[in-house]
């Protein structure tokens, strides 16, 4: 049982890391660009950004620590790409929360429509 709880806590922390990383507008914009345009260098990602290339690299490091972004060296360039599996995990997590809310709203609707049960 303890190992299950430990794993749940670890999974929750990984998801929290993802949402922390996505909680910044600049990082969210970087993720959006990587989704739309594929792997890119920090130099290319800094074009038309409101922050410096060095700031972009720091933001990419936060995304990489959350395992949302991976990097690959190609010659002299380092290309950053999105790890879509991590976004899928975050999406599934939010889907679970949404399903819980849907069930709660369904129970509330039943109570409103039929009255409370006599449990």
TrEMBL record:
Domain (HTH arsR-type) ranges: 5-102
CDD domains: HTH_ARSR (cd00090)
InterPro entries per UniProt: ArsR-like_HTH, HTH_ArsR_DNA-bd_dom, WH-like_DNA-bd_sf, WH_DNA-bd_sf
Gene3D superfamilies, per the entry: Winged helix-like DNA-binding domain superfamily/Winged helix DNA-binding domain
Taxonomy, superkingdom: Bacteria
GO molecular function: DNA-binding transcription factor activity
Record's protein name: Transcriptional regulator
Organism: Advenella kashmirensis
């Amino acid at each position: 049982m303890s190992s299950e709880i430990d794993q749940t806590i670890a999974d929750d922390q990984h998801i929290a890391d993802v949402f922390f990383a996505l909680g910044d507008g600049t990082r969210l914009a970087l993720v959006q660009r990587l989704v739309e345009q594929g792997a890119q260098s920090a130099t290319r990602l800094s074009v038309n950004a409101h922050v410096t290339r060095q700031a972009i690299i720091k933001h990419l490091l936060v995304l990489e620590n959350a395992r949302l972004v991976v990097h690959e060296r190609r010659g002299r360039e380092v290309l950053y790409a999105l790890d879509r599996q991590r976004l899928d995990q975050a999406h599934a997590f939010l889907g679970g929360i949404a399903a819980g809310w849907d069930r709660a709203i369904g129970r509330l609707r039943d109570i409103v429509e039929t009255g409370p049960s006599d449990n």
